Amino acid sequence: MRQAPSDLVHGIYQSLVDGGTWPELLLGLADHVTPLETVHDVSAAELMDHFDRADALHVQMNSSTEPVQDTLRHTGPEICLIDHAGVVTHNTAGAVGAKIDRALRTRLAQCEAKGTVDSWVESHNDHSRVYVLVPKALATQMGMSHADAQILLTRDVDLGLVVDQFSTQHELTRAERQLLGRFLHSTDLRQAAKECDITYETSRKYLKSIYSKSGYGTQAKLIRALLLHPLMMLPTAKSNTGPISAPRRLNILSNGHPFRYFTLGPETGRPIFYIDGIRGGTLDCIGGVDEVNAVLKAKNIRLIANCQAYSSKPKQGAVWQTFAQFGDDLALLFEELGVSDLPILSHGYGASTALGLAHARPDLFSRLMLVSASCPEYKHPNWREMDFSYHLIHVVARKWPQMLDRIMPLLARSMRNDIDRFNAKSAQVAKCAHERAIFTCPLFLERSRRLMDNFDKEEVGNFIEEIKLHAAPVTYDLAAINVPIKLFHGDADINAPLEGAQFLAAQLPNATLHILPDMGHHMMVAEWDRMFPLALDPPTQSFAPPKADRRGCLFANS
Predict the structure, then answer these.
(1) What is the pLDDT of residues 1-28, one digit of tens each?
(2) Any residues with CB less than 8 A from the CB of 358 and at least 6 apart, and which?
(3) Which of 173, 286, 299, 432 has the most CB atoms around its CB within 10 Å?
């Protein structure tokens, strides 16, 4: 009788205290289930019992502390520990193992020499971030750390709001408020005067007036008062950094079926039907409604996206059980919206749905564009080197679909409570700088946190159902899909390997594959402003892919 391996059992319970261990746990599960002849193996049943127990323990452990943890996660600073060699050993909001840059090393050396704390503000595109650097010796004296590490605390702040509140409280003029804002950013009066386009003497006059009205008679006291303002302790308003959260529309089609979808961009724009994989995570992470709408308006693009993926379980908003049924409902929706013969744009695991629709209803779509497409029929020979999502979907879910109902509740809760560590792990294993930059980008990290805030019990059920669909064998003939198809795939993709896209392109009679050098699976998050227009105006064979150091819209707004 085969028993469950002790290292897997330990890994299940270890995940309760360290969400970053999930990739190793899923790889171990994949290794374990691959040789099993039946999911009724005794060890399989034992492991499922352990997942049930661990999930119950997780709920019990977090039921009383979760509100506090959520508050700390949203209001507390990000914490980075740096060892004596200048290497990041712990990071609550990013990757570890990288060396700090030269400017930070210089600041750290000065802090250590003086035995003092250093603090400063960096601003970019009206986005401000406060940094506090605490040397090891001082951190130990203050009881902040028992580790051999320096501490860097960072947080986003809305300095403009602080200045506005301070100015209102002390009845400052508009000119004084403008100078105060620039002075707080630079702490250099001459620089602030230059940025306000006034003389240095005028700036001194304004500053003396601010002293008189506020009661703070020196530059040091004034800056201290601003930095100790209550609003500095609160998180920055996230009006433009959250997931898209576009207004969802519910149509009752002429056949009586409900259909949930949303649309972005001008209604007169050139339409694209968008399909994202795994509950639309990519679309939710690319930007806020205003930001995305502005780009789509400039490019005259109307993005139409269904809110609920194709499902084998009939439910409100997804009553179809076949791609033909899904296509029939889309035909009615497109008729109501006044669009026709439009392209499909898919990302990641949405490719299988896009291909299924093109097979069932080729009359609806002019072409397909598949970005970072996953191919269910392809199994990578070195699958152990792939990302944990590949292990979950292409190995565990395919061999052992029953286990998903036990794994996913615990995995979803772990991701919700510790998404920063998941992102840090993804950055650590990424095979290219572009992918690492995405998983360490502050704006992406904030959006993924907000996405996890909405990951409730219903979403977990939808997530499980979708993974089962992606793991299932393809039910349509790829060779019978004749619509023009363009595939765009990074050569450093470890979620859906490039070889799978090459396999797809070889099976599809009218497909062209464009390889994107030094890009990974999530490149769409950064490069969406470049990729969306390609769905409408496909490139030729001479297409020049975006450079891997371009970074795109995500980073422009960080």
Answers:
(1) 356 678 888 888 887 777 667 778 888 8
(2) 344, 365, 368, 481, 483, 485
(3) 286
